[in-house]
Amino acid sequence: MIDEIRKPILKHMEDFEPFFREQLHSPNKLLAIVTHYILRRGGKKMRPMLVFLSALQSGGVTKSSNIAAALIELLHTATLVHDDVVDESEERRGQKSVNALWNSKVAVLVGDFFLARGLQMATENGELAILKTVSDAVQEISEGEIEQMEHARKLDIKEETYYEVIRKKTATLIAACTKCGAISAGAREETIQAMYEYGLNLGIAFQIKDDIFDYQKSSLLGKPTGNDIKERKLTLPLLYALRTAPKDKSKEMMKMIRSKYKESKTAKEATEFVQQYGGIEYSVKKMKEYGNMAVEALHRLPINEATPCLEKLILFNEQRKK
Question: pTM for this structure?
Answer without folding.
Answer: 0.91
